[in-house]
Task: structure prediction
Amino acid sequence: MKVLIVESEFLHQDTWVGSAVERLADALSRQNVTVIKSTSFDDGYAILAANEAIDCLMFSYQMEQQDEHLNVRQLIGKLHERQQNVPVFLLGDREKATASLDRDLLELVDEFAWILEDTADFIAGRAVAAMTRYRQQLLPPLFSALMKYGDIHEYSWAAPGHQGGVGFTKTPAGRFYHDYYGENLFRSDMGIERASLGSLLDHTGAFGESEKYAARVFGADRSWSVVVGTSGSNRTIMQACMTDNDVVVLDRNCHKSIEQGLILTGAKPVYMVPSRNRYGIIGPIYPQEMQPETLQKKISESPLTKGKAGQKPSYSVVTNCTYDGVCYNAKEAQDLLAQTSDRIHFDEAWYGYARFNPIYADHYAMRGAPGDHNGPTVFATHSTHKLLNALSQASYIHVREGRGAVNFSRFNQAYMMHATTSPLYAICASNDVAVSMMDGNSGLSLTQEVIDEAVDFRQAMARLYKEFTAEGDWFFKPWNKEIVTDPQTGKTYDFADAPTQLLTTDQNCWVMRPGESWHGFKDLPDNWSMLDPIKVSILAPGMGDDGELEENGVPAALVTAWLGRHGIVPTRTTDFQIMFLFSMGITRGKWGTLINTLCSFKHHYDANTPLAQVMPELVEEHPDTYANMGIHDLGDTMFAWLKENNPGARLNAAYSGLPVAEITPREAYNAIVSDNVEMVAIENLPGRIAANSVIPYPPGIPMLLSGENFGDANSPQISYLRSLQSWDHHFPGFEHETEGTEIIDGVYHVMCVKA
Result:
């Protein structure tokens, strides 16, 4: 246990009260309590701001000064941002303190200890009892049960065979593995025989209580803890909602797990096509794509849904937010899709935090209270491990029940099909803890901190861009509004100079308005989408507002290579866009280093520093290509290639239209299983049917789905693959990753159904 004692600046240490505080600190130490002492408000505030975990906060204040009242309120407020139920003790002189206490302060303080009347041991005992009660309610249901079970130190005769890690210690490699991860990981890795903990698959015991807790915090009627990632969550929902006779409506901007759901169920898809801007940034599906008339037209015209005209789709899915951080007004999207389908799925894998900050109001699935919901059944899937705080593979399914509800027993059949009978309890517990971290005040505090950091970074980049361009020079600029308006005053600001408080709290600063050139989405409806402040894209120079390449530019691939050499890994790179995810683990020092590294790139780029000095590994691996080049020379060569070939426009074209679907994804997969497939070189792809999806990474969105025809030799899909092949030949070391392709002797091949 740990206590923070904050002493007033007005209290002298050599007083009788000061010595009484010292005796209390000694009494706490004798009870194995760690005592941290702070002799000023500023020092105490800094300790709390650093997220120091404490079990009790004590003030040694006489409350005679107005500043003391203010300090106590500020310190308790800071404490409660992240540690809401920590007991607070006020240590004081009864006569002086009681005369100055007010009702507000009485509500903030848990206990008053009269330091000159009660003994140090008595006050220490009261504090330990309060801290014990706090710790008993601190942990969420499952993690608490696991810790209590671990205290039993059982002898197990069941799986897993390593028996709490002992098995690993019997060889040197196993011992290293055991010591690297620590004993608690292995002791908590238990089989499902522990009935006292309940069951993940049956949703009983501590597992069931954990899911009820998650449902309350995330605003669902029911939540399902998933340990096979949101890919498994998506497949589970699809398997519970559709059969091979059903028509389903899918966002074409979907994760590959949605296609896998089609393979498993055999359902017949029609697609809503999203928008893309000049940078290849993925925008929203427009409302007209969700209109009932539009969707019925797609059903009547698609080769996969022939004979099903007029059939009501059993399910629809929208990816919210897009990989690039464009968030739907989910209320509006849900109302539109509800006219067509009784089950709506928002794949919010990268967006699980939205409920906890008002800046995202109306732009996520689990809005408001479950009891207020009236309409279709709504699913939301969250990767708790992505931008919350959980171990990899941790995910949640949240459900608001309405029309088309799938009852517990039926849904659980699909859940068990995709779960495991041997879950790693550490993943389950991390899901539980991720929920508890978002509960109460801490959810707002944590999300606000991330938004604050992201906005600070955006403004720092915007100021640098403004300074450089004012001098006729170049720099990177953040992709966001360039002008914002304060709705209270009507005053407009350059983004770089806007009040930070305005940018971090006002949704209007992020809503995409029709006709704004910065976002580049033509004919975008008003109040349909917003940019997530924490998904930060920066733009390298080279592309005009009209989408045409300028005379000069800086290819983003070269910048990303520079960043990678300096230990910085962006989440996505297009021709002129570099994207960074701000999360709860990002710090000011981390993004400060990013800015320094970008400035360093600019310095060396402008100086045309030889590649042998700044990227020696690249030159060593490919001396024939790069031996005598400077970094600016390479950038110019890359830019000239981009200008001639324009792969971004080809990729946009590939995503903007729909290839002809000859067979369903399930039929294409059956061809793989029956070995009715062959690898086809790029020059022979015209007219062929893909047996697997072709998925450029990142962001991992299918450009061509399995069962679809590549089209003629000039189709955008083949043209894009051809441009990738050319780029890879011209710029070794900068190859692209495209799932579903295989490079054989330098030639792109794709697995196709045999002709």
The two ends are 71 Å apart (CA to CA). The chain has a mean pLDDT of 94. The chain has five domains: 2-138, 142-187, 199-439, 443-630, 647-753.
